[in-house]
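From the shared-data thread, chain only:
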Amino acid sequence: MVFDWAKEIENPVTICDETGIIIYMNLASANQFENYGGVDLIGSNLLDCHPEPSKSKLTEMLKKQTSNSYIIEKNGKQKLIHQTPWYEEGKFKGLVEVSIRFDGKIPTFKR
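Structure, as tokens:
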């Protein structure tokens, strides 16, 4: 499994398989979760890394193959979190999470 496209982008990218096992973390993701084990989290279940109600939400997303987006604020910094299913030749393979830092001012363009 190759996810080289994500290796060095500035945004943390974490990928799990259809059972929730973390199969990939790019450099930014490994750094973001360094206090929890960083790259050593690969092979563990992401459900074990989340408290309720997040754990139930992720379980539902894996079961129903749905997306989820939300904004978090921590230490005065905001992040947009987007979690979405990924597929290979039409077969559900798991979830991808991308975390995007921003300053609270995202332009909106009507098209």
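The helical segments are 27-32, 54-64.
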